[in-house]
Description:
alpha/beta, 5-stranded parallel β-sheet, 38 strands
Amino acid sequence: MTKKRILVVGNGMVGHHFVEQFSASNAAANYDIRVFGEEPLLAYDRVHLSEYFAQATHADLALGTLEWYAEQGIALHLNEPVVTINRADKTVTTPLDSYEYDVLVLATGSYPFVPPIAGNDQPHCLVYRTLADLDQIRASAEGAKTGVVVGGGLLGLEAANALKSLGLSAHVVEFAPRLMPVQLDAEGGALLRSNIEHLGVQVHTEKATSEIVSGDDARLRMNFSDGSHLETDLIVFSAGIRPQDTLARECGLEVGERGGIVINDFCETSDPAIFAIGECALWDNKVFGLVAPGYTMARTLSSVLNGDQSVSFQGADMSTKLKLLGVDVGSIGDAHGQTPGCRNIRFQDEAAGIYRRLVISDDRKTVLGAILVGDNGPYDTLLQYALNGIALPDAPETLILPESQGGAPALGPDALPATASICSCHNVTKGDICCAIDAGASDLAAVKGATKASTGCGGCTALLKSVVDNELEKRGMEVSKDLCEHFPYTRQELFHLVKVNDIHTFRALLRQHGVGHGGCDICKPAVANILASCWNEHILATDHVALQDTNDTFMANMQKNGTYSVVPRVPGGEITPDKLIVLGEVAKKYDLYTKITGGQRIDLFGATLSELPLIWEELIAAGFETGHAYGKSLRTVKSCVGSTWCRYGVQDSVGMAILLEDRYKGLRSPHKLKMGVSGCTRECAEAQSKDIGVIATEKGWNLYVCGNGGMRPRHADLFATDLSDEELIRAIDRVLMFYVRTADRLQRTSVWLDNLEGGLAYLKDVVLNDSLGIGAELEQHMAHVVGTYQCEWKTAIEDPEKRKRFREFVNVPSQKDPVQQWTTERDQRRPLLATDAM
């Protein structure tokens, strides 16, 4: 029997997904399949394109292999674009040959829209779409200082992040009055802009570029219609996409008035032998610019070609959950509240940089849409309410309130119906997951392999894990403790792998012991923390930068108005008058708000990004070091004055506090660490509320472990009594290093101890009796941390490449950030708040 010929034009994400689906179907045996790709590279993941600038390669991003295509008997023609379609003869022509077809699938995708601006074709005017485009951007960035992205949508902000990662001062120019106008309302757009500008990306809205000419102080100059201008070294156009429908137009297929190959519910074009899927297709006068609808079209077409007419394409949910330049953004359903009679509930926390809008039906029973900026925590719950018509609670506002303010807990897996969509990219429901588990999938990886869930954009990872864990527990099966989808290990196991195999980079760990590429918001900071704990390398080392959050990246804590606080270390709370004077002089010079903290340090608020290295230089010259207030590390060792001054003191608590702080100041740990040393049992240093607490006795020191203050205070446990200085240090070395090695990510010492099998008695046995025989190893590891300590501020200001990260205004380095607004209160400068205008 002669096989039919199916030709697929386009080897992008959607084209590849169709080939995957169809080749696994029954009908595939009746077809010879050919795939044509315009690029020389095999299909790759465009959703994670920006990771190419973080040392990812095409191999990391590739969706398949040449071997797989060969095994399936698929003829793959890379770097061979189809240039014409002859519908009468049912042939396509490439620069190399002509090929006959019985079924033709157009998966040609889209192309980046470049606004018709005079001068847009000059050198260093680029687009952001393919790996080749990214190579051009990287080359153009060599020797450049400033880069501009034209377009403030999803891809535009991703491109701005790419420019920033290349060390450029990044600008975004948007024609609309706000960023992401399709997904966000005015309030959400304003907060996103504020958050992004505070990260060092300058935003220019309501700007129409009239022409691009040569610049005076940079390569190019953008002249705007309002008379203003902006100079830059390169321009990246990311102002939207247009369907790649040229082949369809030229062969006479029906196309939409504004582009797109018209298809019906079965992805069939105006020619019954030709189908279209993905961003080139126009369904119900809509072009879908996300990967999930394209995947749905691919699955629909595969079913249609298998003779299943019960499956049809009925549109797609366009909800999105993203992290743009480190800022969470979520948009669900009718985010703009266009439904007649709908009601809106809003929550905004300026201090935390969070905005949430919930759109509900007039009867207050159904979620219609939502907007989230700054924190996507409620996203999965709100999406399930919207997609599944789950009845709202009596107080729907609790869905967007923080738990500390009466917010409702996240929707549990048991509340979801079997039809609940868990992964929209691959159309995986809760019922599909349950079926996969019942069929033998016994962990998250197996479920993903069986269903493809979470292998698209990855936005459903947390929800998928929650559902899988819940269903496994209900069946009495063991629940995986994997860190995330990329690493089938716990944090403790990853720590062991890094240490034993001498692994120093995230990429090496992922390549040797992980799956997928790029990592996620769970594993990146966790691995960064492990690497720092093991090797104590600088957090701005080239391989570590992309793993850090904002505070670690800039070695300072970002405040609500986008400025930073500077907290120098004051060991044990002891400080000389000369150093106090320096702090005062620096605060006056840079007009910094000054406050003594609860940890006996002095916090300087209001520094701009570009001021940080200047402030550090003056502090370091006076003998100060970084206080690590930005990191998961030792913060402070609080002390009383002890036996030196106090008539009740029995030991030198200040001296011991300084000794401990100087010893452990470089240690990176799963969570922040605080210590206290009291000179007697009156406990003025509150040592028993600390992770490590030391209280003087007549015979030495009592050691307390695993306490904490905060929202859930826990009294520390008495661990050992009457220790000498040497015994105390040895015990603390072992406790801390055992914690660093065995705790879960972001786990405080108190929670770690509560979850430690055997509890306090077991920990005592390990540390005091060396029951595991690892005491010397723990001490040796701590000695390495102590011996390799470096002041991260000092290293950064002495390295020109690291120092570049603290530029805000490249052309005018001394310029103050115009976004900041200030007022005076109690003789000090503070940020101007919205409530000040009330």
